[in-house]
């Protein structure tokens, strides 16, 4: 592309992030709240990764995928929340042009990675419930590594494509972003260049990236439901819910808030709903994942108890 070989024509050196729609007197309380949520997100997901690494009983495909999801959640929150907190504390709402483009790249990368990993985890549950005798054969180590590597690869390509197309655009006048982070759709509204190619690629390629994993998740759970209903019993239903309940909760929360923000956007005069939805899937959902997967999971609670008891014994 010719635009990749020439210098950026943008006369804008920085953007202004308006941040959250809060009153000045509420800034201190909101800052403390989001700081607590962010620290909980980081520490909770790091705890999941640590438990999976230390307990050999958790060295299974499901927890292998969960460790990558936990890392992705830490990264997704770290891309947006620290900058939001700094802006809230210092009232310096500017972000350099390069920093904004970089934030968009990594945000798309880890949001897309979450998308793929949720689909991979759904497939893992499908094999475990619908083909239990073949589980160890199908979900072998090589396939698990390939699924995660493929998720990383396609996420990187997806993020790079949209970032390169965005870098070809010029920003000549308004540099105010009505959001707490650099959002791709918000920047496309600010450019003075033709965005038809960007919007076409976003609609086709971005739609496929969202549709294919979501279809895989729906297909997996339809098959799981059909398998359970062939020979319905309270025991089988309870076992399936204990196995899939945590994942289903995260899927509904993630896709529900994502749809509110991108598939059912609010009018130009009211951006509050979009910002709330963005807060949900960039801040709240990553924080809830550790609680969802640990408090509802017997193996995770057992591993945590063993590590805690070993620490107490070592201290004595």
Describe the protein in words.
75% of the residues lie in helices and 3% in strands. The chain is an all-alpha fold. The protein has a 3-stranded mixed sheet with strand order 2-1-3. α3 (97-130) packs antiparallel against α5.
What brief labels describe this structure?
three-stranded mixed beta sheet, single chain, mainly alpha, 10 helices, 316 residues
Briefly characterize the structure:
With about 325 residues, the protein is an all-alpha fold. It is about 75% helix and about 5% strand.
Q: What's the arrangement of secondary structure elements?
A:
Layout lengths: L13 E4 L9 H28 L6 H30 L3 E3 H34 L4 H4 L2 H27 L8 E2 L6 H7 L5 H35 L3 H30 L8 H24 L2 H18 L1
Parallel strand pairs: 1-3
Antiparallel strand pairs: 1-2
β-strand percent reads: under 5%
How far is the first residue's CA from the last residue's CA?
A: 65 Å
For the secondary structure, the number of strands is 3
What is the chain-wise order of helices and strands?
Answer: EHHEHHHEHHHHH
Strand order of the largest sheet: 2-1-3
Gross morphology is globular
**Which range best describes the helical content: under 10%, 10-25%, 25-40%, 40-55%, 55-70% or over 70%?**
over 70%
Number of helices in the DSSP assignment: 10
The whole-angstrom Rg is: 21 Å
Give unreliable regions as ranges.
Answer: 4-9
Give the biggest beta sheet.
Answer: 3 strands, mixed
């Amino acid at each position: 592309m010719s635009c990749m070989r020439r210098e950026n024509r943008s006369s804008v050196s920085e953007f202004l992030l308006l941040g959250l729609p809060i009153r000045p007197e509420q800034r201190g309380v909101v800052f403390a709240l989001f700081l607590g949520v962010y620290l909980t997100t980081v520490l909770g997901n790091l705890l999941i990764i640590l438990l999976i690494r230390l307990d050999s009983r958790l060295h299974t495909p499901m927890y292998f995928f969960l460790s990558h999801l936990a890392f992705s959640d830490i990264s997704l929150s770290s891309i947006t929340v620290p900058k939001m907190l700094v802006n809230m504390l210092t009232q310096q709402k500017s972000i350099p042009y390069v920093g904004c483009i970089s934030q968009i790249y990594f945000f798309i990368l880890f949001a897309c990675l979450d998308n793929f990993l949720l689909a991979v985890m759904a497939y893992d549950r499908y094999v475990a419930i619908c083909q239990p005798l073949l589980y160890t054969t199908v979900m072998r180590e090589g396939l698990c590594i390939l699924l995660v590597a493929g998720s990383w690869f396609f996420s990187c390509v997806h993020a790079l494509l949209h970032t390169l197309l965005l870098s070809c655009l010029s920003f000549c006048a308004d540099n105010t972003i009505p959001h707490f982070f650099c959002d791709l759709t918000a920047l496309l509204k600010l450019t003075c260049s033709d965005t038809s190619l960007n919007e076409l690629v976003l609609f086709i390629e971005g739609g496929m990236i969202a549709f294919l994993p979501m279809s895989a998740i729906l297909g997996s759970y339809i098959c799981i439901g059909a398998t359970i209903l062939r020979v319905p019993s309270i025991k089988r239903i309870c076992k399936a819910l204990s196995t899939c309940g945590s994942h289903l909760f995260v899927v509904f929360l993630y896709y529900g808030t994502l749809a509110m923000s991108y598939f059912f956007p609010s009018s130009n005069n009211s951006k509050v709903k979009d910002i709330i939805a963005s807060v949900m899937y960039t801040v709240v959902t990553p924080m809830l994942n550790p609680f969802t997967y640990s408090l509802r999971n017997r193996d995770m609670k057992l591993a945590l108890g063993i590590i805690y008891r070993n620490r107490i014994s070592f201290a004595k």
